[in-house]
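Hi there,

I know you've been waiting on this one. I reran it after we fixed the sequence typo, so this is the corrected version. Both the input and the resulting structure follow.
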Amino acid sequence: MHTLGRWLSQQRRAYRAGTMTGKRAAELEELGIAWDTADAGLETDLAAAPAYYELHGTLAAPRHTTALDQAVGHRLTNVRRPRGPGKDPVRAERRAAALAAIDPDWNPGR
């Protein structure tokens, strides 16, 4: 007997391997399945970044800061580190651009 988590992992592996049909992928996407859990977690936490920026005028949030019940400070601290936006250059650029759209100075160490 498989747990839901194990089944979802199998579906994600099939999706990445290209062995999943387009129909199955579309059906799972309609249910809200995130193919990349790292991206989903980051997007959830950083969804609060605009709210934090609106209140403080900066994304230089202290590490333990939360906004809209999300760990925005923790995530921002992590993405400022070298290779923090991600190992994949396309993904890293997309993440950095999304943060720069909120606050051009999101990464003051750069």
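Quick highlight: The mean pLDDT is 86.

Best,
R. S.
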